């Protein structure tokens, strides 16, 4: 057994906490060699003492690069939430680390640019999202695929009408997963699934027509692949992020045992339903953004982040999240970005448009 040296970005969030728990209980044979968070200094300091490693409050990208450059590690786990995760991913790659990537915005915003950077630097990007982790491992097992199927729980408001007066507390009450506030709201609107569609398009070089989404309330099947011969293969496991996190950080170095509770088929019901464009307009907008490419995926992410923030601050209705995002995407975002600076320019431009009137 080889102990994996892992550096965790977003150490106090749900992804970081899950990884640390896996190391504590032995699911992941690993050693923490660095901890990073944007806040929660006291919690970070306590974790650093427990795992006997240095830590850093990420308030400066130049200092983050210095910090990561000083560390010994096999892989960086990026669990940072939102757009700030992109720069951290690029810094980690340029510091010579492989990347276990839970920050979907890195791919949604970075697109081909970050994937080409990883190739140039001869670094791996291993997806941590349960859906993309499943696809990643299914493709490794079956090599050539025809298309993929990504599952969605449907969130707390599936098939419910009149959502104008939905509260923040209701929106974050996800029926299956325990997550942060922003991603929980994204799951309620299916913007999260839209981001995953865009991410899958870039990660696996798929066109929008080759990415299906199906409503699967049980969250047991995380993704499926279709082969040219008509066969469908799926990855099933309990809704627990420990498995994709441990799998990505371990990267097939050590055998894994009992990472999650084995799935029981004694009383298991699996259902699938077609998603409705009227019910989930943000998912439809994401498909269009992926089809258009250019900077449209960047604009989709930025507009949604701004709108979700306004909803959390009680400045707009839940249903206005999709309206604001749609309005932003009506502008011209056809420019293809070839640098981090160009990406951030388009990101800020989209945010400024979204914030007009607030």
Automatic annotation (TrEMBL):
Metal-binding listed as a keyword: yes
Which residues does Mn(2+) bind?
A: 129, 131, 196
Identify the Gene3D superfamilies for this entry: 1.10.1740.10, NAD(P)-binding Rossmann-like Domain
Looking at its record, which EC class is this enzyme?
oxidoreductase
InterPro entries according to UniProt: DXP_reductoisomerase, DXP_reductoisomerase_C, DXP_reductoisomerase_N, DXPR_C, DXPR_C_sf, NAD(P)-bd_dom_sf
Q: Which cofactor does it need?
A: Mg(2+); Mn(2+)
Positions with a binding annotation for NADPH: 12-15, 103, 105, 180
- For the DXP reductoisomerase C-terminal domain, which residue ranges apply? 236-352
Keywords noted in UniProt: Isomerase, Isoprene biosynthesis, Magnesium, Manganese, Metal-binding, NADP, Oxidoreductase
Domain 1-deoxy-D-xylulose 5-phosphate reductoisomerase C-terminal: residue ranges: 125-204
Q: Where is the 1-deoxy-D-xylulose 5-phosphate reductoisomerase N-terminal domain?
A: 62-111
Reactions that this protein is recorded to catalyse: 2-C-methyl-D-erythritol 4-phosphate + NADP(+) = 1-deoxy-D-xylulose 5-phosphate + NADPH + H(+)
Q: Which GO terms describe its biological process?
A: isopentenyl diphosphate biosynthetic process, methylerythritol 4-phosphate pathway involved in terpenoid biosynthetic process
Q: Which family does it belong to?
A: Belongs to the DXR family.
Role description? Catalyzes the NADPH-dependent rearrangement and reduction of 1-deoxy-D-xylulose-5-phosphate (DXP) to 2-C-methyl-D-erythritol 4-phosphate (MEP).
Its protein name is 1-deoxy-D-xylulose 5-phosphate reductoisomerase
Q: Source species, please?
A: Bullifex porci
């Amino acid at each position: 057994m080889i102990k994996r040296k892992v550096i965790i970005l977003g150490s106090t969030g749900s992804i970081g906490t899950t990884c640390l728990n896996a190391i504590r209980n032995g699911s992941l044979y690993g050693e923490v060699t660095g901890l990073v968070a944007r806040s929660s200094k006291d919690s970070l300091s306590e974790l650093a003492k427990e795992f006997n490693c240095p830590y850093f409050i990420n308030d400066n990208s130049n200092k983050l690069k210095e910090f990561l450059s000083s560390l010994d590690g096999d892989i960086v786990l990026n669990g940072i939430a939102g757009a700030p995760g992109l720069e951290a991913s690029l810094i980690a790659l340029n510091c010579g680390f492989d990347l276990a990537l839970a920050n979907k915005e890195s791919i949604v915003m970075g697109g081909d640019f970050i994937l080409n950077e990883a190739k140039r630097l001869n670094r791996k990007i291993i997806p941590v999202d349960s859906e993309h982790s499943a696809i990643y491992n299914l493709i490794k097992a079956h090599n050539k695929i025809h298309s993929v199927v990504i599952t969605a729980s449907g969130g707390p408001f599936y098939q419910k009408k009149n959502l104008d007066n939905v509260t923040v507390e209701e929106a974050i009450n996800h029926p299956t997963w325990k997550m942060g506030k922003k991603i929980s709201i994204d799951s309620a609107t299916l913007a999260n699934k839209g981001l995953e569609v865009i991410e899958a398009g870039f990660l696996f070089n798929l066109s929008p027509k080759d990415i299906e989404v199906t409503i699967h309330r049980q969250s047991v099947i995380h993704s499926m692949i279709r082969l040219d011969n008509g066969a469908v293969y799926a990855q099933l496991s309990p809704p627990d992020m420990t498995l994709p996190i441990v799998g990505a950080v371990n990267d097939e170095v050590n055998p894994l045992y009992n990472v999650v509770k084995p799935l029981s088929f004694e009383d298991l019901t699996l259902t699938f339903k077609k998603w409705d464009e009227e019910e989930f307009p943000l998912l439809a907008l994401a498909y269009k953004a992926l089809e258009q490419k250019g900077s449209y995926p960047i604009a989709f992410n930025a507009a949604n982040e701004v709108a979700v923030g306004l909803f959390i601050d009680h400045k707009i209705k839940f249903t206005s999240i999709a309206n604001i995002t749609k309005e932003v995407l009506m502008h011209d975002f056809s420019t293809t970005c070839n640098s981090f600076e160009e990406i951030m320019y388009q990101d800020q431009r989209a945010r400024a448009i979204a914030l007009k009137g607030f």
